[in-house]
Amino acid sequence: MKLSILGFTSAFAAIALVGALGCKHADKDAAKTAANTDPLKVSVTPQLQQNITVGLPQLLEVTTQQKVSARVETDASHVARIGSPVEGRITKVLVFEGQKVHRGQVLAMLHSNSLSDTQFAFVKACSQEKLAEQSAERARQLVQADVIGKAELQKREAEVLQNETEVSALRAQLHGLGMSEAAIHRLEATRKLTSEYPIIASISGTVTERDVTVGQVVQPADQAFQIADLSNLWFAAEVPEEQSRSLALGKTVVATIPAQPGESVTGKLSFVSPIVNPETRTVQARMNLSNPKGLFKPDMLASMTFESNPEKRLTIPSTAVVREENKDHVFLQISPTDYLLREVELGVETNDRRVVVRGLTEKDKIVLNGAFHMNNKRKQDMIKGGE
Questions:
Q1: Phi first, then psi: what are they for 166, rounded to 5°?
Q2: How many Cβ atoms are within 10 Å of 145's Cβ, its own excluded?
Q3: How confident is the model over 293-351, as pLDDT tens digits?
Q4: Taking Cα atoms as reference points, which of 194, 180, 19, 175 lies closest to residue 106?
Q5: Which of 170, 264, 352, 365 is buried deepest, with most CB atoms within 10 A?
Q6: Are 313 and 60 in contact (CB under 8 A)?
Q7: Nearest CA among 258, 262, 282, 261 for reference residue 272
Q8: Which residues contact 97 (CB under 8 A, 6 or more apart)?
Q9: What is d(CA 264, CA 193) in angstroms, rounded to the nearest whole number?
């Protein structure tokens, strides 16, 4: 009976020892499994290893596309601000915004007392000039007849010269007030004064602004109309200071306008500002825009795209990039068979390569090709680890 009890006790102890050893091994396996369920880590099988390519990021000369906001502007060299050189009151307005006009066309009429006063002075000076010439001619005859002395003749000739000078000065003043030479000759012949003054277009184009109405009094410094030749416009952009290093006269740019989807205009920079705007920290750049059909209009929103100067940048192939949760990642090799998913910040894509902004160095080994398969393996391991 004692032996039986002893045997039973030994057997129970052996079973307990085996159970304890089994639990210890189970704990080790669980710990090992837990260690292999890192959601960012993946171990490759020999079969998967054949489908991936591992290598280093490369330093390459990269030319990136830089896009900036722009707008359509009138070409300042084809814009005229029209005013009146005399003070007066507007009596007629003959053109309005949007109308096309030609050079020499009358835009408005005004009544000017200044103009009539100058005309009166001119007519009076012309009459005095003729009287002085007649007086000088009589003096020459009297000198020949020895009736008067030469001093009197010289005095009358001086009066002729003085009157000629006054007429020339008033003629120039009438020119300055806008009268044509033909109108001045007509005034000189007819002696008929007019206080009506025309405001005339100095260039051909489209009326873009009208600043006068009937009855309004205008001064010589006031703008009455603005005319622009809209067949020649500008694309103008304010380029951020940090991107302005790539700007240069003659650089090729491509402009697009949202109002005309699918349309683009390729040209060259005709102006790059030599200074930085201290308020916006931008540099102004312009491209000439030919607009013979009038498709483009001033103040339209646009964008301009140009290439940066080539520079050495760290790059990786696009096949190395894994997109997860709206962020870019790559698989970094941490051992011959183990890889870690690392978040990186990438720049623009050029020639099927992405520029590395942050997260990698030249010495980091990554999966260059096959990252998609690696990510599938990582997700499968996550699912198995959760079971």
A1: -65, -40
A2: 8
A3: 888 999 999 999 988 777 788 999 999 999 988 999 999 999 988 999 999 999 878 88
A4: 180
A5: 170
A6: yes
A7: 282
A8: 207, 208, 209, 210
A9: 57
Which amino acid, one-letter code, is at 156? R
**Which residue in the block uniquely carries the two structure tokens 């008033």?**
170
Whole-number Å distance between alpha carbons of 158 and 166:
12
Q: CB atoms < 10 A from the CB of 62, how many?
A: 19
57's tokens: 């990021």
CATH number of 37-63+311-386: 2.40.420.20
CA distance 218 to 197: 12
In three state form, how does the secondary structure of 269-332 look? EEEECCCCECCCCEEEEEEEEECCCCCCCCCCEEEEEEECCCEEEEEEEHHHCEEECCEEEEEE
Mean pLDDT of the 126-151 span: 79
- For all residues of the chain together, what is the average pLDDT? 83
| Residues 259/261/265/270 CA torsion (nearest 10 deg) | 40
The encoded tokens of residue 310 equal 């080539």
Task: For residue 355, give both structure tokens.
Answer: 């520029």
Stated as kind and residue range, the H or E segment containing 242 is none
Q: Supply φ then ψ for residue 255, to 5 degrees.
A: -110, 140
Among 143-152, 331-340, 350-359, the least confident range: 143-152
73 pLDDT exceeds 50? yes
Tokens read off for 286: 């312009």
Judged against a pLDDT cut of 80, whether residue 17 lies above it is answered with: no
Alpha-carbon distance of 349 to 356, in angstroms, equals 10
CB atoms within 10 A of CB 15: 10
- Residue 291: which residues within 8 A CB-CB, separation 6 or more? 230, 231, 232, 233
Domain spanning 67-76+229-307: which superfamily?
Efflux pump adaptor protein, beta barrel domain (2.40.30.170)
For tokens 């809209």, the residue is 230
CB 196 within 8 A of CB 86: no
87: which residues sit within 8 A by CB, 6+ positions away? 112, 113, 114, 217, 218, 219, 220
